[in-house]
Design a protein that fits this description.
By secondary structure, the protein is an alpha/beta fold. It has a domain at 3-85 and 153-233: P-loop containing nucleotide triphosphate hydrolases (Rossmann fold, 3-Layer(aba) Sandwich). Helices cover 37% and strands 26% of the residues. It is built from nine helices and ten strands. The strands form two sheets. A six-stranded mixed β-sheet has the order 6-7-8-3-9-10, with helices on both faces. A hairpin with a 2-residue loop joins strand 9 and strand 10. Helix 3 packs across helix 4 and helix 5 (136-148) packs parallel to helix 6 (166-179). The protein is globular. It starts with a strand and ends with a helix. The mean pLDDT is 93. The structure holds adenosine-5'-triphosphate (ATP). Residues 12, 17, 35, 37-43, 82, 190 line the site of adenosine-5'-triphosphate. Residues 3-232 form the ABC transporter domain. Belongs to the ABC transporter superfamily. GO terms for molecular function: ATP binding. Keywords: ATP-binding, Nucleotide-binding, Transport.
């Protein structure tokens, strides 16, 4: 099972940001993790990638409990953090070489993989620039390139199109769809149109608890469609 979450919760001080989450993700699924601002999406994703320890419950990635073996976990997952924290002063290829080194690639394999991911994410024309010189959409492609560098079969993307203009959003959506093949992709968003255009399944979270886990088709056939579904579940 790529992702299994059992009674997962996180408490910050006195506040439960996430509480009693249960869900699974199957191979090849593309899941929209939807919820309003402050619903607990980033907190959940950070627990799944081992950046935050759960206060209660467990999450496992291919059977590895997220708190048990950080290195084994990171081999299984590609993660794009919210706001895409890439090094602005590094050149695109330099940054990707740094990522390849972190993953233990030999110099030869690293050079080969850099060329592959640059092609995959559509960075060929920008590959010799500094990251800080790229548009936001292209910086997002660099963030996605680092997430897929080690060819993980699980991708966790935290608001991958946030802050992009409509054209760039569309390009990143296409890119995410093109990566789908055999990967399990869990991405967070508060944009209904985005989730609708990319995913097969929705997990909807509000105030830290899961309010819906259903197919996209089911959510769209809700009376009033997806907007009504979202509004009713986040009341
Ligand atoms: N480090 C922290 N310390 C204390 N409270 C936090 C911390 N991080 C998040 N929170 C709180 O936990 C709740 C959930 O936040 P989280 O960032 O997970 O939500 P989100 O759904 O990702 O929101 P957004 O869509 O705005 O990014 C919010 O009330 C937030 O203020």
């Amino acid at each position: 099972m790529p992702i299994q979450v059992l009674n997962l919760g996180k408490k910050y001080g006195q506040q439960w940001a996430v509480e009693g989450l249960n869900f699974q993700a199957q191979p090849g699924e593309i899941i929209g993790f939807l919820g309003p601002n402050g619903a607990g999406k980033s907190t959940t994703l950070k627990m799944l990638v081992g950046l935050l320890n759960p206060s209660i419950g467990t999450a496992s990635i291919h059977g590895i409990e997220v708190q048990s073996d950080a290195i084994a976990l990171k081999k299984q997952i590609g993660y794009l953090a919210e706001n895409n924290p890439v090094y602005q002063d590094m050149y695109v290829k330099e940054f990707l070489a740094f990522i390849g080194n972190l993953h233990g690639f030999s110099a030869e394999n690293c050079a080969r993989r850099i060329a592959e991911v640059i092609e995959l994410v559509g960075l060929s024309r920008e590959q010799s620039k500094k990251i800080g010189e790229l548009s936001k959409g292209y910086q997002q492609r660099v963030g996605i390139a680092q997430a897929i560098f080690h060819n993980p079969d699980i991708l966790i993307l935290d608001e991958p199109t946030s802050g992009l203009d409509p054209n760039q959003m569309e390009e990143i959506r296409h890119l995410i769809l093109s990566l789908k093949s055999n990967k399990t992709i869990l991405f967070s968003s508060h944009l209904l149109s985005e989730v609708e255009s990319i995913c097969d399944r929705i997990l909807l979270i509000n105030k830290g608890t899961l309010r819906a886990d259903c197919s996209m088709q089911e959510a769209k056939s809700y009376p009033g469609g997806l907007p009504a579904f979202f509004q009713d579940k986040t009341k």
